[in-house]
Amino acid sequence: QVQLVESGGGLVQAGDSLRLSCAASGRTGRPYAMGWFHQAPGKEREFVAGISWSGHSTYYADFVKGRFTISRDTAKNTVYLQMNSLKPEDTAVYYCAAFAGSMPEVRPSEYDHWGRGTRVTVSS
Asked: Is the pLDDT of residue 28 over 80?
């Protein structure tokens, strides 16, 4: 019963920044860790970043460490992904997902709810 809606994607140049948002609605009273994933055409959905239910623990894929920051505002039921120093290889559809647990999980199959995705295109 949790609905997730991503926003903030767009077309940018290499080196630019984007801030993605994921707004949650519905039954959000349970503890949910949140994750951001991306998927390029012909490739598997891949973990990008995760944040614990408490918001104080974060985890990042190696290829985004030092560039991306995940955060959440529990009062607004919103999770963010600040993406800096974007590279062409970051081009993908980005999805937020909710996991019924306290800590984020890197496996997409473990997540219970998914947003529709927002497209990020980074030109060189």
From this structure: no
